[in-house]
Protein 1
Amino acid sequence: MGIKKILTEIKYEKSYDEIKALISETTNPVLLHMITVNYNWDDGFYIPECIIQNRYCDLGTALMIFDYADGYSFLLDNDELTDIDWKNFIEKLKLEIQNRKFETQKIKYLPELSCADKLRIKKLYPDLESVFSEGTSGEEIGLIIV
């Protein structure tokens, strides 16, 4: 079954339990990346959590999840956070990226940060892995949006 068909089924036909099962069974890092691209972030952290728990989740995908979940606001405006679930999700993901949990590093992801934001992150977090400000190398994945 093609990635576009799977993404369409996830978006329109599958329940959360079916999506979780599909994510946990996949060995395809590109599919996990495409699920992330197509995810509706108003639905919370359930699906992104499943993706980052999959051992085939690529570092580029994890960094994209961090970015899409507004992790850079967390880094730059930490004192203004009020949503505890969001804060816990971001802190956990930040630590997992920092501790190099994501073994596969084949997908390119470059966060859209200004030079000022990159410098501010480096100043606030001197021990933070450079991947947070510089992104990941690897193959650029063409996006499939459904």
Protein 2
Amino acid sequence: MRLMAVDHGEKRIGVAISDSTGTISYPLAEVGHTSRKGDAARILELADSHAVERIIVGQSFDEEGNPNPAGRRAERFAEELRSHTKVPVEMWDESLTTQDARTVRLKLGGSRKKRAGHQDSLAAALILQSYLDSKSYHSTTAGE
């Protein structure tokens, strides 16, 4: 099963995809924000062209565990996706993925200029990998 993750931002949307086995995620694209409807159409085009069977949308929360403003925007975006596709769209906690993406890029090395680029697709890959790891863990322990 191929899955896609979306890291919804105000300026850009990071997109990641899994391998066909649904085991490993990798960055796919960064989409510039235009409008919720336009953004959803572009994400769904990518999902269709990669035969995606599930879309994961990252959502952030405040200290009390409630969606923060960015998390509420992500929820509205997920609703827009759902209204235009039969592909299941699921929310997933994206806490600290942007910071984790910065850390990963720093560890990968390269010039400061290269590291200064956008990390949205890498953040989406981290969201998706977290989702995949969680589901893999549950499926392997369910039969025990």
